[in-house]
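Sharing a chain and its predicted structure for anyone who wants a worked example. Both blocks are below, sequence first, tokens second.
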Amino acid sequence: MVRSSLAGTGTGLMSWTRRIGITMRDVLLPPRCLACGVLVQADSGVCAQCWSTLTWIGEPFCPRCALPFDVDTGTTAVCASCLRSPPPYGRARSALVYDTAARPLVLGLKQGDRTDFAPALARWMAHAGADILATADALVPVPLHPRRRFHRRFNQAGLLAAHVAQVVGRRVWPDVLCRTRACIAQSSLPRQRREANVKGAFRVDDRKSSRLAGRRVVLIDDVLTTGATAAECGRSLLDAGVAAVDVLTLARTAMTQA
């Protein structure tokens, strides 16, 4: 009984200390809008004006690839691209359409060293992917080639995965999926060349494959465009014995994957 009481006191003390720390942080470094820099409420991410410029993905959308639909065609209807060539992953979810409003947020994190963007962006992702995260055993970030990671100093997908995991209470397996070779940046290639660019570029680390057997994983990345990278990673994970792969990204393009 005494032990239980002390444990409760310790937990309360830690919670109180954390609240004090957050308050001091907000006083010394008040939170600002990720997009325009004006002061915002704590943890809100962006101001009301910038929020209204972002295109949030909600129903209706393709349940396989998260492509936004203009009209509601039913909860089970998939887009023409997924009908023609079903992706190896089961379901994809994205928080935002990748457009002129979302691009500075994505590139700020990815290329601008704005790692402080990650917590807010991850909360948006966790909300958008609530259904697939609820059944996930672990999150697996799309890996960078070691050379690119050395120059960037971090993997944006890994950073997002870590923060999403904190929000939803899931494990992250950052080291099960590896890049076998460096690839040309997908963004620099026309759509028809992206699949060939990443063909065979990923594999599961043989030393880590045993933990994957029968698991449901969510692949994490920043942007879904043609789906070529997600598809190649998904195949590698399924070949290693994963039971199911879903995909969660911060943003996706609002165009067909054809």
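Comments welcome. The domain at 51-252 is CATH 3.40.50 (Rossmann fold).
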